[in-house]
Amino acid sequence: MEKGKRMIDLDSLNVWNDQRLVGHLWRNPIGAIGFSYAPEWLSRDGFRVSHTLPCGSHDFTPEEGIAHRFFANLLPEGGVREQIVRDLKISNTDFNLLRAIGGECAGALSILPVEQQPPPR
């Protein structure tokens, strides 16, 4: 690795609510998405992001599919999705789209690469 450069984790993303870290997303080798709540979110009366993802210290594994369905549902579909994939020149996977546009998802959550912090609101 080149001096001064750090490795970027391409298989993990952070989930934010405003300036508070909610949890972490990761993908397995076949692209399925898992989620876990951040301990600091749980210790400060954080809310569950979905009725299908109740607060707790356990992981929602990629194999369960629960987290994948919830977070994929935040993404655009059809022609809009295809246009974004073409414009950004990324592969058409849910995780890649969350990495690329998750900071602009509808709703209260922002999904960002681990090396990024959300901007102040």
Any chance you could write out the topology, listing elements then pairs?
Layout (H helix, E strand, L loop, with lengths): L11 E6 L2 E8 L5 E5 L1 H5 L22 H7 L5 H11 L5 H8 L7 E5 L8
Question: Which keywords apply here?
Answer:
globular, alpha+beta
How can the largest sheet be summarized?
4 strands, antiparallel
Question: What is the share of helical residues?
Answer: 25-40%
* The number of domains: 1
So how many helices? 4
Order of neighbouring strands in the sheet with most strands: 3-2-1-4
Mean pLDDT: 90
Quantity of strands, as a count: 4
Q: Give the strand content.
A: 15-25%
Specify the structural class. alpha+beta
Radius of gyration: 15 Å
The SSE string, one letter per element, is EEEHHHHE
| Gross geometry | globular
The rounded distance between the terminal residues' Cα atoms is 35 Å
Task: Provide a quick synopsis of the model.
Helices cover 26% and strands 20% of the residues. It has 121 residues and is α+β, with helices and mostly antiparallel strands. A 4-stranded antiparallel beta sheet has the order 3-2-1-4.
Give an overview in words.
The structure is a single chain. A 4-stranded antiparallel beta sheet has the order 3-2-1-4. A hairpin with a 5-residue loop joins strand 2 (20-27) and strand 3 (33-37). It has 121 residues and is α+β, with helices and mostly antiparallel strands. Helix content is 26%, strand content 20%. It has one domain (12-107).
